[in-house]
Write a structure and sequence with these properties.
By secondary structure, the protein is α/β, with parallel strands linked by helices. The chain contains 6 helices and 11 strands. Helix content is 40%, strand content 24%.
Length: 255
């Protein structure tokens, strides 16, 4: 059994894989994380993908205590086998590169990955399975919070299903403006990035708010809300194959 952990800016997501399928999953809001209970399912290995360095080691220690398994950290203990064309590769978030790798493996390249969470990221994978780069804009809740925090009179608005109607009160003006504006921005950025990836590019969507964005986007988006967790499993599977191959190679050398 593999325990896959995705530490994001808003939530920590856990999934237990058996034979390539998720048999159990749960989320804990980052601000509410107090540790990990003892798991009923025996765990053989654990992998962590994290964009919150200050909590990574704490979660790792908690997993080791609860399961007896020391997790491997993606980007440190395990590298993502996707060519990274970022000018400074170390600056790219592990989650973005892992999403790109997962999309290229599951759906084939070229691909554009739209992830809608605390931030909205749009990333591109070339037909040669190279990570090309992308765009970052504020996520829906981030935009709603910013309008409230940085103005004197605009209220705090909760993210709920929006409409295409013109707002006739301040709350609707903010909600519909943020949602429709973000969807339009995503469409425009996909169009811009498509010049690099070509006409046969698949668009893969993930993240907590992707279904809302898909509703208002004019693009055909294939939603996979477990994309990053599936990417963790694919890395794990690749490591097992590599370890088996290396073991066989060493045995052959000895004989």
């Amino acid at each position: 059994m593999l325990l896959a952990i995705d530490i994001g800016n808003t939530n920590i997501s856990f999934a237990i894989f058996k034979g390539g399928k998720i048999i159990k999953s749960w989320d804990i809001p980052l601000k509410e994380y107090r540790g990990i209970r003892t798991l009923e399912t025996p765990i053989k290995d654990a992998l962590i993908c994290s964009v919150v360095p200050q909590i990574t080691q704490r979660v790792s220690r908690d997993i080791a205590k609860a399961t007896g398994v020391k997790p491997k950290i993606i980007g440190k203990d395990i590298l993502i086998p996707l060519k990274n064309l970022y000018k400074k590769p170390e600056q790219l978030g592990t989650d973005r590169l892992l999403n790109a790798y997962a999309a290229s493996q599951i759906y084939s390249a070229p691909a554009i990955i739209v992830s809608c969470g605390t931030a909205i990221t749009i990333d591109a994978v070339s037909k040669n399975s190279e990570y090309l780069g992308g765009f970052i804009i504020p996520g829906l809740n981030s935009s709603l919070s910013a309008l409230n925090l940085n103005t004197a009179l605009l209220p705090k608005v909760k993210l709920v299903p929006a409409t295409k109607n013109i707002g006739r009160n301040t709350q609707d003006c903010i909600l519909n403006g943020v949602v429709l504006g973000s969807a339009s921005a995503i469409d425009a950025l996909i169009e811009a990035i498509s010049f690099k990836t070509g006409t046969n590019t698949k668009i893969i969507g993930t993240g907590g708010d992707i279904n809302l964005m898909k509703k208002f986007s004019k693009r055909e988006i294939k939603v996979n809300k477990n994309l990053i967790l599936n990417g963790i499993f694919l890395l794990y599977k690749g490591e097992l194959i590599a370890e088996t191959r290396d073991c066989r190679y060493n045995l052959l050398k000895k004989t």
